[in-house]
Amino acid sequence: MADAIMTDGTQKLGELFVREKTRLLGFVRRRLLDLSGLDAEDILSEVIYNLLRRADLIGEVENLSAYVYRSLANRITDEQRQAVSVVSAVESPDPSRPAVPLLPPDPRPRPDQHLQQAELRQRLFLAIDALSPPERAIWIATEIDGLSFRELSEEWDEPIGTLLSRKSRATARLRQQLSDYRNYR
């Protein structure tokens, strides 16, 4: 009886593999983009082999196709967890010169970046001040305070469409006034 179940499970798995091989390989390849050292066919073969070894359980599986895809996804996740990129603590492009230790980047902005941020902040405040009071209010409420249009509509007793129009006009004016600043990014 156990041989009949095992044979039935093996047969079902074999049929699924023959029918879905191209899709299964595509599924694995799409998920392996960042693990280029691995071969999709190797992973697929390994998963199918492991499932065949446990073919007696296949008879209990309600949706065999979903079970195989989940097994593949789990195997890829295992590979991603094990993948460790090798990073050298020193960099020496020229073997005749001494190695230079690699340092993490400084999280603080450079002086020129700090100056650009300060200029942008000042220009943004001036541009916001130049908006009409209703446009300024809606832009600040949604962008800075994080309020929703529905909340503002109820609180201000204004239709949502009116608020959306004001916000759109405000955003367009701000973009126009700050358009030349995009070159600095």
Structure notes:
The protein has 185 residues and is mostly helical. It has a two-stranded antiparallel ribbon with strand order 1-2. It has two domains: 2-82; 111-184, Arc Repressor Mutant, subunit A. The protein has helices spanning 2-31, 40-53, 55-58, 64-82, 111-129, 133-144, 149-156, 160-177; strands spanning 90-91, 100-101. It contains eight helices and two strands.
Cα-atom radius of gyration: 30 Å
Mean pLDDT: 78
Instruction: Kindly estimate the percentage of residues that lie in beta strands according to DSSP.
Output: under 5%
- Structural class category: mainly alpha
Oligomer classification:
single chain
Widest β-sheet, arrangement of strands: 1-2
E-strand count: 2
N-to-C CA distance: 71 Å
**Uncertain segments of ≥5 residues (pLDDT<50)?**
1-5
User: What proportion of the residues is helical, as a percent range?
Assistant: 55-70%
Tell me the overall shape.
Answer: elongated
The major β-sheet equals: 2 strands, antiparallel
Number of domains: 2
User: What series of H and E elements makes up the topology?
Assistant: HHHHEEHHHH
Number of helices: 8
